[in-house]
Every structure is written in C-alpha cells, then in structure tokens.
Design brief:
alpha/beta, Rossmann fold, 3 domains, 6-stranded mixed β-sheet, 20 strands, 34% helix, binds adenosine-5'-triphosphate, binds magnesium ion
C-alpha cells in the first residue's frame, strides 16, 4: 500500500460514455510521485479517453480525481495544466501554420519586453534550451506543418515537458520516432522522474513499457484489469490481460515459390534517393529496411506517384507505367498505406464506410453503374470484421475511432479494391498486439493470392519475420538485398547503419 501523501495522481471510478459505447467504465488508477506508470490495452480499450479526462480535454460523466491529494475537477485543459498536469495526446494537436517556438508556448503568457512587445528573443532561447535538453535539432521558425512527423512529435514532447508538471502524460509518444530519438526521450524522462515528476506513459510497444515503467496498468473494454509492478510481470502476462486470451506470437509461414517479376524498378531517382533498382515478384513480400530518412518512405511515395520522380523507369507486369499521381497508381492497381494516417490516409470528417470505399468509388460505380450504398456498406462491413475494427457501426465518423482503429481503416481502404501491388509504410504502428498478428496474416494472404507487397517497417522483428527478402537503404542508396531468413536483428541494424555484411 502506498501512502496517500506520495500519490501524485489518483483517479477513482471514472466513467465516460459515448453514443453506443462506454469508453471508460469505472477506472481507478494511482500514480505515485516520481514513478513512471505504463498504461497498456488493445485498440479502443479506453486509454486515450482516460488520459483526456485526466488532462481536462474531455469531461468525465462520473468519478473523482485527486492531484497531490487535493480533489480536482477540470472544465478545460487550461485548468488541468494549472493543476500541474501536462499531456501529449495521441493526435499531436500542434497548430500547423505556427512555428515550433509558438507551438511550444501556445496558450501560455508570452514574456514581453519593457515596451510590452512579445519578447521573441527570450522565447526562442527558451525553446532552444528545451530542444537541447532533448538533444534534437528542431527548426524553431518554420511552420510545423512543413516538418516531418518525427520532428513534429519532438516539438509536441518539448511542449509537454516545457512546464514543471506534477504529472506528465504521454500517449503513444514514440509512434513515429527513430530508435535514437526514443533513446533521447527516455533519457529526459529519467531526469524528470529523478526530479519527482510522475509520468503516465501509453504505448503499444511492450518492450518499451518494460524498459521504462515502474508499474503497469492494463485496460480492457474501458475497465482497469490490473496494476502490476513491471518487475513482477512479463510480456506474455500483459498480452493475456489485455486481450483476455493467450496469443502465440508467430509470423505466418513463408509460402514462397517466387512468381514471375511483377514490378521492375530501375534507376529510381529523386531528390532523396538515387539509382534504386529492384524487382518485386508475384507472391512476394519485399521488405525495405533503413534508418529514418534513408529514403524508405520516399521509394514508396515515388511508386505511388505521390512524389515526383527525377529519373528511372517502372514496369508493372512488363508494361512501363508513368505513375504521375496517386490516381494513376490506384488505377494501375497500386495501393498505399501511408505513414501519416491522419493527414494522408483518412478523411476525418467522413464515416468509416466512406473512408473504406473512398479510393475505389470508381470500381463500385463501374460494377453497379449506380453507386449502390448497400454494396458499399457490405464491403465495409466485411472489412470491419476482417480487421476487427472497433466501431459502433460503419456509419460512425472515423475521427471518433481510437488511434489504432483509425490505422486499421487505412489498411482496410487498400483492401477494398483490386490490389496488384500493395505499398505499406509502417502498417502496424499504433496497432495492438492481437491485431498485429492478424494483419500479418492478411498481408501474407494478399501475397499468396499473387500480388506483391513492399513493406517499410522500423519494427525489426516484424520486417524480418514477415518479409521474404529485404532491401536495405542507406542515405538514399540501395546498399544490399538479403534473404530475410538469413538475418537477425543485429545484422539488419548493422546493414541499416551502412556497415558491410558480416
Ligand atoms: N469522440 C468520440 N466519440 C465517440 N466515440 C469515441 C470518441 N472517442 C473515443 N470513442 C470510443 O471510445 C472507445 C475508446 O477509445 P480510446 O481512444 O480511448 O481507445 P485507446 O485505448 O486509446 O485505443 P488506441 O490504442 O487505438 O489508441 C472506442 O470504442 C472509441 O471508438
Ligand atoms: Mg489511443
């Protein structure tokens, strides 16, 4: 039993209902002063909703909260912030047209000069100090919308740690970060912990949770199932608590008898990659490894026509294809699951069914001459079942789905039509373990049906376990192609760092 005075945060019986779903169902959690408290659970378990209530973004229907033993009730994020709670939300909520400095200090009184003008010099200086603490190079005066997802995350983290918080809350902070950036973040979290800050940390990456958390709370279907010391539990235990059954973490069998060449890429060149050549065969899952910024996503975007090709040729089934736009690519049978799902993959204002069938309206229209809503709904329902998308019904707005379920919609969108080549950029980012392995089965099934899959993933076990072969990019160049079953993680990482094969 922890003494009450050591309790930085205590929530008791929190409830939040949304139409058709009880998102959080009587959750009780205690966060001790100076502890890192992990929070895990399947997609849609209620983690983000819980955090939004603690940070004043969403009003609980019932329940009580205490910060340092004092009862609190927030009517806004500002209230929560004043009470010492600082949060980084899963959807970053940066203002895209403001620069990093403005975003970091947004909503707080800016320092002024003695002429009552905003003291930009001091502000930039303060922003720079936080960036230095995180050991990252953040361009401080560029609209953040123009920066990479990883940099945007670092800015949001900088913002969250820029206040002296009693409780710092991070919801999936590492989803788009490189290993190196994660290391830097963890260093800072340890420093904050030493200073007595309590940290509530949500992640689907269980290894991360075990590395950093002192105690772990598991949620399932809106309820807190258990809170355990990290030292007294295991990944297997957590998974069982999260999904209520045990799960054999196995990758689908490679069924490869490689088919004929499907996609032949020769001398692909742009501002970020040069002279990349490879062949993707029918039935093959071809992984692309490399560090963040090595050109992995660029290759996919070029093949999807989302980025201008500077040179090189692409042939699909022996025919040269121009791929000047995503529209071209889709009509040729090339579909893509992009890295940044919210900005690139979804229309947040539309429903699940609209999003799932969006890219393929043409094929529906051609099949039926008139667009038949019932047909669309049928296809959408099939995908919702297949990918276990947690949604009240297919008419629900995608903005209301949990982060991981939005990711599944992006995936489903690609499966709605005829796909010959599937381009996947970090397809299981933010997806819970149970669904992850179902998605692996789905991807292997797509390859087995004769399509080709190009897979970019920073999750090394995933890249090795799922791919047939792996291309490794370094600084925009293709350095080596290897059979996946002849690699271990260490060797793959060496190659990603541009070292020669051992
Ligand atoms: N604004 C909203 N309107 C309607 N339903 C919502 C809303 N926000 C969340 N929900 C529902 O509440 C449930 C819990 O969602 P929540 O975002 O808290 O899950 P999560 O544990 O954070 O999942 P993930 O790991 O996918 O991020 C889900 O069924 C979700 O669809
Ligand atoms: Mg969430």
């Amino acid at each position: 039993m922890v003494a009450t005075q050591d309790m930085a945060l205590r929530i008791e019986g929190l409830v939040k209902d949304y139409p058709g779903v009880r998102a959080v169902d009587g959750a009780t959690v205690e966060v001790v002063r100076g502890e890192i408290h992990g929070l895990v659970g399947e997609n849609g378990a209620g983690k983000s909703t819980l955090i939004k209530m603690i940070s004043g973004v969403v009003r609980p229907d019932s329940g009580t909260m205490f910060v340092n033993g004092t009862p609190i009730s927030f009517t806004s994020a500002r209230d929560a912030y004043k009470a010492g709670i600082s949060a980084l939300h899963q959807e970053l909520s940066l203002v895209p047209y403001l620069d990093a400095t403005e975003n970091i200090f947004l909503g707080r009184p800016y320092p002024t000069t003695r002429f009552r003008l905003i003291d930009w010099f001091s502000l930039r200086h303060a922003a720079k100090q936080i960036a230095d603490l995180l050991d990252v190079d953040i361009p401080l005066d560029v609209p953040v919308g123009e920066l990479s997802p990883a940099t945007q995350t670092m800015i949001a983290i900088a913002r969250a740690i820029s206040v002296q918080a009693t409780v710092l809350i991070l919801d999936e902070p590492t989803a788009s970060l490189s290993d190196q950036e994660i290391r830097r973040l963890f260093r800072v979290l340890h420093v904050l912990k030493q200073r007595g800050t309590s940290i509530l940390y949500v992640s689907h990456r269980l290894e991360e949770i075990f590395e950093i958390a002192d105690r772990i709370t598991v949620m399932r279907d809106g309820r807190v199932v258990s809170t355990l010391p990290a030292s007294q539990t295991s990944v297997d235990d957590l998974i069982r608590l999260m999904i209520g059954r045990s799960l054999s973490q196995v990758f689908p069998k490679r069924t490869r008898a490689p088919g004929r060449p499907l996609l032949e890429v020769a001398h692909l060149t742009s501002s970020k990659v040069s002279d990349v050549s490879f062949v993707l065969h029918r039935g093959e899952i071809l992984g692309i490894g490399g560090l963040a910024g090595s050109g992995r996503s660029e290759v996919l975007r070029l093949l999807f026509g989302a980025e201008r090709r500077g040179g090189g040729t692409v042939t699909l089934d022996g025919k040269s294809v121009a791929l000047q736009s995503p529209g071209h690519a889709l009509r040729a049978g090339i579909a893509m699951v992009p890295e940044e799902r919210r900005s690139q993959g979804l229309v947040l204002s539309q429903s699940v069914v609209e999003n799932l069938t969006l890219a393929h309206l043409r094929s529906f229209a051609l099949a039926d001459i008139f667009l038949r809503p019932s047909h669309e709904a049928l296809v959408a329902k099939g995908l919702v079942d297949r990918l276990r998308i947690k949604t009240a019904d297919v008419g629900q707005n995608v903005a209301q789905l949990s982060g991981g379920n939005q990711q599944k919609v992006v995936m489903g969108k690609c499966l709605a039509g005829q796909v010959i080549v599937l381009l996947l950029d970090e397809p299981t980012r933010g997806v819970d373990v149970g669904t992850k392995f179902e998605i692996y089965q789905t991807i292997r099934g797509i390859a087995d049906s004769g399509s080709g899959v190009l897979l970019v993933s920073s999750d090394l076990p995933e890249l090795i376990g799922l791919s047939d072969r792996i291309l490794v990019l370094h600084d925009g160049h293709l350095v080596v192609t290897v059979e996946a079953d002849q690699l271990d993680q260490e060797e793959l990482l060496r190659l990603c760092y541009g070292r020669p094969p051992a």
